[in-house]
Records
---
Amino acid sequence: MLGLHNILRWVILILLIASIVKSFSGWQSKKAFTSGDGKLWLFTLISAHTTLLVGLYLLLFGRFGIFTVSLPEGMSVMKDKFFRFYWIEHPFGMIVAVILITLGRGMAKKNVGDTVKYKKAFWFFIVALIFILATIPWPFREVIGRPWVPS
Ligand code: HEM
């Protein structure tokens, strides 16, 4: 599950960046909305929701899961950098990102002009990307850093 969660991060990043580039160019060149873009947004949504489900499993039952680890008496999660990141910051940041991706993809079904569709989706996706980049446990981050690929 941890390996899958690690790899899915790359799937989301690639699909999300492609969605951002395509929604930006659709917005700027006032293109008609294409079914190809609709499919790309859908795959981005599916990869985000799958990562969310695997993440929820890890948070509850993984090796550092809430039901797996018993913290020493009197230890505060908020004062421990490791557990504060994996139990609070990472899930919170990523859930916000998944909500934004869901709203962005929802624009495909909204009854609005195609330029508005592209423009709004672009903003939802770009803010989602910022949340994801800020809350991934990159290898260079102290204490919480994890490998680029499953190890
Ligand atoms: C949707 C976007 C998400 C991305 C891109 C993402 C990315 C990652 C990455 C790269 C790791 C490190 C994997 C490794 O050590 O090899 C990780 C670990 C973890 N993630 Fe996520 N995550 C996401 C969502 C979530 C969510 C929504 C939750 C919880 C609700 C979550 C819970 C966790 C936990 C608990 C770990 C540590 C697991 C362990 O070490 O046993 N993740 N995540």
---
Amino acid sequence: MKVILFGATGMVGQGVLRECLRDGGVTQVLVIGRSAAGQRDVKLTEIIRDDFLDYSDIEAQLAGFDACFFCLGVSSVGMDAERYRHLTYDITLAAAATLARLNPQMVFVYVTGAGTDSSEQGRVRWARVKGKTENDLLKLPFRAAYMFRPGAIQPLHGVRSKAAWVQAIYVAAAPLLSWLSRVAPKYVTTTEQMGRAMISVARDGYPKPVLESEDINRL
Ligand SMILES: NC(=O)c1ccc[n+]([C@@H]2O[C@H](COP(=O)([O-])OP(=O)(O)OC[C@H]3O[C@@H](n4cnc5c(N)ncnc54)[C@H](OP(=O)(O)O)[C@@H]3O)[C@@H](O)[C@H]2O)c1
């Protein structure tokens, strides 16, 4: 399986990259990001760029892939509405539309979050934006698309969040998260499990397009 990975420098993406590099069935990983993922592996190639809206200059390098794991994303905390929408909706759909055209056999996996609002009508801004992003991704002509909606994610194997405040919360909450993942797996998953579940749905599919933590942990 040949995989394109966005967001490999982030908390979720670092975990997903680790699992892709460890999985014998993943033969190639193309990382697309603003900076290097900081890994060396015979399976790994990287495209470093600033433009995440127009891929016409690299289309030839984006064809022939089986899956895209889209882990690029930001927190809405402290961000104005227009910028959050741009970083969440515009950037995601620009990449996905290009990839769907170049790889109609591709499986696309998008990381949203627990509480995403599929109705696009609710009171919570970030949830509406993520909901519209999910809904429009599901309309694209991929072989399949899966929306991952994790709640809390326990970072494992040295994975760190890009956002200092998120990292601080995860360090402080590590013992609690570790306990919660045992007693309430419905609400907590891990970076390792996110990566393993993405590979699993890309390879074998899943009965429904939206996966909560419970589904992610089952895979
Ligand atoms: N962490 C959690 O607990 C959690 C829980 C539920 C859902 N999620 C969702 O999972 C997704 C990823 O979260 P995360 O925790 O991995 O975030 P993170 O650690 O902050 O990483 C964000 C990733 O997105 C990239 N990115 C951000 N802005 C960008 C831009 N303007 N252009 C290009 N790349 C950009 C970053 O690249 P740079 O290195 O270039 O900045 C980085 O690779 C988000 O959609 C988030 O809502 C996270």
